[in-house]
Amino acid sequence: MAPTFSIGKFIKYFILVFFAIIFLMPIYVIIVTSLKPLDEVSLANMWTLPTAIDFSSYAEAFSNLAPNFMNSIYLVVPATLLSALLGAMNGYVLSKWKFKGSDIIFTFILFGMFIPYQSILIPLIQFLRTIDLYNTIPGLILVHVVYGLPITTLMFRNFYANIPDSMIESAKIDGANFLGIFRHIIIPLSITGFVVVAIWQFTNIWNEFLFAVTITTSDQQPVMVALQNLSGSQIVQWNVQMAGALLAALPTLLVYIFLGKYFVRGLLAGSVKG
Amino acid sequence: MAKEVQLKSKKRITKDHWTAIAFLIPSFILILVFVYGFIGWTGYVSVSNYNSLIPDFSFAGLKNYIYLFNDFRFQADLRNTLFFTILFIGLVIVIGMGLAILIDQKLKGEAIFRNIFLFPMALSFIVTGVVWQWLLNPSTGFNQFLSVFGIQPKWYTDTNILAGFEWGSIEFGLPVAIIAVVIAAVWQMTGFSLAMYLAGLRGIPDELREAARMDGASEFQVYRKVVLPMLMPITMSVIIIMAHISLKIFDLIYAMTGSGANFVTDVPGVYMFETTFRGNYYANGAAIAIIMLLLVAVFIVPYLWNSRKGEQ
């Protein structure tokens, strides 16, 4: 009995380690290539370690991406906060103040989460031009707040469904009204909810590309568009592209490393129907 | 007195309900305009003659749709989307579920494995595309290992169509180049299904598996007869979520391969972007977008319908 058990265990570890290596290979290539000096970057020695560590590709990638990196920050912070706040308001109403038709309204909002954004892009750009927000960061913030509403509403609605109705009922008996309950009971209980939603929105908006590339041009562009331009240009060396990819991915990677638990909770909250 | 209190509270509840509805109104209007209104507007553009920089909203009937379905590029896009979707969903489910079952075995280091498989979820499709473009470049990357075995796949530069036959104006079959894009997409999204399956597995009480073992079921049978059926709802959710990601995919392909020779890696999302914003064929772009929306709706509407009914 004992030997077969350990063979089974060995096979399990073997498969896990095999996949782990494959999953880590891209990261290995990014790090190794980005630390190589220019003369060591060639197609033939992609996998070899650099002979000396050289940060010049980071310096070059940084000077290329820094302005766009800041654009992404100006975009992500307000868009995340606003969409989380609106999501909390909607989630509160749709879970604790249900009325006739509120479930239909929820589904009506939720549908917006699944649409291909190509199907609203042409009118959206005409609209943004009309209100003078085309090619601006505030325009992009507006877009991400609006199209973030379905997912933040869903997450908060699921989150608030776990707060017992009896708490709301007893607060009502104590004379608290709609806003009072929201401010004094719901918000204090929502800290985790806000963290989960904020991390989810931060990651999604930081990584988003279609809106970014169609709504903004050159100096207004967020970092992902700048990275794509960097890799698309023939004159930029491959080590700089890799350094750029790592710089652009760093904020979301750090969030994942330090707050991964909440990231996964967001992933589950947004996918498992509530 | 008692009556008065009751009346008062009743009155307040209605007032509170009005406040609640007022809370919802801004979001409701935004969604109404930005989602439904704009879809309607796109639909209107898609049946117009607006195919240049000068807006021309004269009615064109289904002209743009007929053009697309006869178009070599769009036919290739539909073929590519079909094979991409099937391979992508299949692999994300099989690998995600397999790794979740292995991680759920209470082996040492499970947290490390889980974190390794999940981290690509935090990256953008653009980063994934930029990196995998080099890893699957035929003259470097993985081919340096594969040269030991004497095989040198051409990955996304391959223009072959497997098991191809004439269909419309294209060769229908599996475009070999799409496999390279599927690999990159699976690398990025497997963490999603893994996390969902892990949550599902943790929700299955141990007693159930114990009981099956007591009845003499082998470990394999326990999974096939007890665990797998209980994971069915999760598999359904994974299929829906992956299908809608796959049908609207744009950034990964745009960053990694572009349309490819003979459009072997082109998809509707890329075509829509290029024809609308690079070519100014607004009506054609709108028609592509409406077709994409309809494809997604085939999956999403029944899903939303069911989850609403499930709640009642």
TrEMBL record, chain A:
The chain crosses the membrane at residues 12-31, 73-93, 105-125, 137-160, 181-202, 238-259. One of its GO terms (biological process) is transmembrane transport. The keyword Zinc-finger does not apply. It comes from the Bacteria. Coiled coil: none annotated. Its main location: membrane. PROSITE patterns: ABC_TM1. One of its GO terms (cellular component) is plasma membrane. Keywords: Membrane, Transmembrane, Transmembrane helix, Transport. Residues 69-259 form the ABC transmembrane type-1 domain. Belongs to the binding-protein-dependent transport system permease family. This is ABC transporter permease. It comes from Virgibacillus indicus.
Automatic annotation (TrEMBL), chain B:
It is found in: Cell membrane. Its main location: membrane. Keywords: Cell membrane, Membrane, Transmembrane, Transmembrane helix, Transport. Pfam families: BPD_transp_1. It is a multi-pass membrane protein. GO terms for biological process: transmembrane transport. The chain crosses the membrane at residues 21-44, 82-103, 115-135, 172-201, 222-247, 281-305. Residues 78-305 form the ABC transmembrane type-1 domain. One of its GO terms (cellular component) is plasma membrane. The keyword Protein biosynthesis does not apply. InterPro entries: ABC_transporter_permease, MetI-like, MetI-like_sf. Belongs to the binding-protein-dependent transport system permease family. This is Sugar ABC transporter permease.
